[in-house]
Amino acid sequence: MSEISPRRRVDDHNEELRAADGRVPGRRGRATRQRLLACTRDMLTSTSYRDVKVIDIAREAGTSPATFYQYFADVEAATLVVAEEMAQHGQHLRVIITEGSWAEGEAMATALDLVDAFLAFWDDHRSVLRVVDLATDEGDGRFQKIRVRLLNDITTALADVVREAQKGHRIPTVIDPMAEAGVLVAMLAHTATHQYGFEFWGIRTAKLRQSMARHVSWGVTGIIPPD
Amino acid sequence: MSEISPRRRVDDHNEELRAADGRVPGRRGRATRQRLLACTRDMLTSTSYRDVKVIDIAREAGTSPATFYQYFADVEAATLVVAEEMAQHGQHLRVIITEGSWAEGEAMATALDLVDAFLAFWDDHRSVLRVVDLATDEGDGRFQKIRVRLLNDITTALADVVREAQKGHRIPTVIDPMAEAGVLVAMLAHTATHQYGFEFWGIRTAKLRQSMARHVSWGVTGIIPPD
DNA sequence: GCCAGAATCTGACGGCGTGTCAGGGATTGT
DNA sequence: ACAATCCCTGACACGCCGTCAGATTCTGGC
Question: Which residues of chain A have pLDDT under 50?
Answer without folding.
Answer: 1-14
